[in-house]
Specification:
The longest helix has 15 residues. Strands 2-1-3-4 form a 4-stranded mixed beta sheet, with helices on one face. By secondary structure, the chain is of the alpha+beta class. The protein has 2 domains: 74 residues, Arc Repressor Mutant, subunit A, CATH 1.10.10; 80 residues, Glutaredoxin, CATH 3.40.30.10.
Length: 186
Amino acid sequence: MTPSKKAGVGSPRSGAKTSKTKKKNGAGKNASKVILAATDEILAHYPLEEASLIMVLQELNDQLNWLPPKALERVAKKLNVPFGKVQGVATFYRAFSLKPKGKKTVKVCTGTACHVRGASMLVDELKRSLEVEPGEGISEDGNFSLETVNCVGACAMAPVAMIGDHYYASMTPGNIAKMLKKEKPE
């Protein structure tokens, strides 16, 4: 089994520029050591061959909540697979993230039904509350990322936000703070 998840390990909030922010978010030499140790621990559970590539990347993405370049380099070396191929697999599958993410991802449906019922106002309120753009960066506390999705198949409940497998139906900008408080990781 995998060790406990360490979302966003080794990744400063997108756009972070100060050393204070980097230290706060775990970037630097220690983060690289943590990333490589996690990568080695995952690799130890699989045969060191190309056939293990997707499974290793899935487990890395689950544990780190993204695929750091140093981890991809280590995987390529240990599995004896060209780095370009590892990078190709990592970029092909949408389930893999090459950008750091928060511990939880807030997804707002922007499909037709949600759009006409105010999804853009939800996105605006989440951008303000989390201080991030959709698909870009992590909230200051490292807890949340924000994404928009085309449709979640819950049109009757529009507008819809999702965190994990939990659907939040008939959302309004006024419900956002309550949702984030309920979902805030411990």
